[in-house]
Design a protein that fits this description.
The protein is mostly beta strands. About 5% of the residues lie in helices and about 35% in strands. It has one domain: CDGSH iron-sulfur domain, mitoNEET-type (Ribosomal Protein L9, domain 1), CATH 3.40.5. Strands 1, 2, 3, 4, 5 and 6 form a 6-stranded mixed sheet that branches. A hairpin with a 5-residue loop joins strand 1 and strand 2.
Length: about 140
């Protein structure tokens, strides 16, 4: 597995993504390919899906202490982490990745994750469908 692809969940802040990262729009268009990018998870960024610091003014809160997250049993060969936006919904991350909590500890290694980007999930950093009731647009 490619341990170079990492998603660190920042306390009260964004997702810090490092490695071989590709971000795609819902229509499949490549938005960004980078070794280091920051994705919004509060839902308030003016440059969604990327963070613009709006979480500070919005008062977004999540301690980003990750516990009891299941790792995938099947390991995937090295390759990019492809993150795709779902229209007015979550981020779908596919590919080898390591999820880290705010303290830098490894929470899980996975090949797929549905990540919240509206800020309302009760299962942060994962999506629980709260974007529908919240009327999230992005």
């Amino acid at each position: 597995m490619n341990s170079d692809n990492r998603i660190k969940v920042r306390a009260n802040g964004p997702l810090l993504c490092t490695g071989d990262i590709e971000v795609y729009a819902a229509d499949g268009q490549l938005l960004e390919k980078s070794a280091d990018l920051v994705l919004c998870r509060c839902g308030h960024s003016g440059s969604k899906p990327f963070c613009d610091g709006s979480h500070r003014e919005a008062g977004f809160r999540h301690d980003a202490v990750l516990a009891d997250i299941q790792s995938d049993e099947a390991r995937q060969a090295a390759g990019p982490l492809k993150i795709t936006l779902r229209e007015n919904a979550m981020l779908i991350a596919r590919g080898p990745m390591t999820l880290l909590g705010s303290d830098g500890t490894v929470a899980a290694t996975r090949n797929k994750a549905g990540l919240c980007r509206c800020g309302h999930s009760s299962n942060k950093p994962f999506c629980d469908g709260s974007h529908k009731a919240a009327g999230f647009e992005g």
